[in-house]
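We treat protein structure as text, and this decision shapes the records that our systems exchange. Because each token names a local backbone shape, the row as a whole describes the fold. An entry from our holdings is shown next, in its original layout:
>
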Amino acid sequence: MIFTETKLTGAFIIDLKKIEDERGFFSRAFCANEFREHGLNPTVAQCNLSLSKQKYTLRGFHYQTEGAEEAKTVRCIRGSILDVIIDLRKDSLTYCQHVAVELSAENHRALYVPEHFAHSFITLEDDCEVFYQVSEFYAPGKERGIRWNDPAFKVDWPTQQPIVSKKDANHPDFQS
């Protein structure tokens, strides 16, 4: 695997190191030892799969608090998405900054999202599937959200009229 740190310390783009031949390729998509070598949390408590039927379906921003903070490794396995993360670590030099990465079935790229980051994605085509490994179990009482268009972050989404759940659309303005 090839780990490239984003402008947000601790958040990495993970590209595959492919062994190719006439049949296709083979690559490791996850290795706990390689994650540890890069200072990343290799724990996998659960794996999630999301199917979004329509282009411009937006999910998030989501994160957990109070001892249930999650690290995530996100990969689009069908279609393509714009994956966006926000650094919510108050002691970070990049606090409240975000980064956007295109993940697709074609580029095989993953995004490592550290604990204390909010995570969201929007589909760039119909019928997108997103698979992600999560380091903590889902804790409904510790789940938090940030509205997709919160003015504090000025995310440049590919549309201003995404398909968003009522829950995600109604998060209050972010309070730092």
User: Anything to note?
Assistant: The chain has a mean pLDDT of 96. The first helix runs from residue 32 to 37.
